[in-house]
Design goal:
Blueprint (H helix, E strand, L loop, with lengths): L3 H11 L6 H13 L2 H17 L1 E2 L6 E2 L13 E8 L5 H6 L5 E5 L18 H9 L4 E4 L5 H14 L5 E4 L15 H9 L2 E2 L1
Parallel strand pairs: 3-4, 3-5, 5-6
Antiparallel strand pairs: 1-2, 6-7
Length: 197
């Protein structure tokens, strides 16, 4: 039987996505095995993330500054915007080394059954970027599931009038798959074979 404090820690770990009760218990017992200095570093890292990491004012990616490293990098091609669902989707795209444009993070995808309507996504700032910047191409790199496809269709209708080339990453990522868990070679192939909409 675990103690009240240990149960509370297990409950907190269990609230994390993808962490079942057994995994939460393993993590909690691991914390018990850590020395006090390690626990302090762990809690400090979590607090610092909450205090110092914010959204980039241009693309919505996570950053410690007003602009993220990608938006502030002068060597990036600002005429190409790759639209992703979440910041975590940028990591595998960057690992391919095949993309030198910039990004725009939607913070989700249209899912009316889950209460996610277009007004809850980072769409307004995307349209403002398109209107004021010299954008030549938009790449849709959303997860290939029903909600992702719905979001692409919705955004296509909004962006088409600007006369910009619209593409989406090609096959390689299976329908219902998740960009976050796809290997770099598959993502690189999908980027290279993107299709115009």
């Amino acid at each position: 039987m675990s103690t009240r404090y240990l149960e509370k820690l297990i409950d907190e770990f269990h609230k994390l996505p993808g962490i079942g009760r057994k995994s939460a218990a393993r993590l909690a017992f691991h914390v018990l095995d850590m020395n006090e200095n390690e626990v302090e570093k762990f809690s400090e890292a979590m607090l610092n993330v909450k205090k110092f990491v914010k959204k980039c004012s241009v693309c919505g990616n996570f950053s410690e500054n007003e602009l993220c490293d990608i938006c502030s990098n002068e060597t990036r091609d600002r005429s190409i915007i790759c639209i992703v669902e979440d910041s975590k989707d940028i990591i595998p795209l960057e690992k391919t080394g095949k993309y030198n444009g910039v990004y725009h993070v939607l913070n989700g995808k249209i899912a009316p059954l889950n209460g996610v309507t277009p007004d809850k996504l980072n769409i307004k700032s995307l349209l403002e970027r398109i209107a004021k910047d010299d954008i030549k191409e938009i790449i849709f790199a959303l997860n290939p599931d029903l909600e992702g496809e719905t979001t692409v269709l919705y955004l296509t209708k909004l962006i088409k009038p600007f006369g910009i080339t619209l593409t989406k990453i090609a096959s390689g990522i299976p329908m219902g798959g998740n960009i976050e868990f796809t290997d770099s070679a598959t993502i690189a192939k999908a980027l290279e074979g993107r299709q115009e909409l």
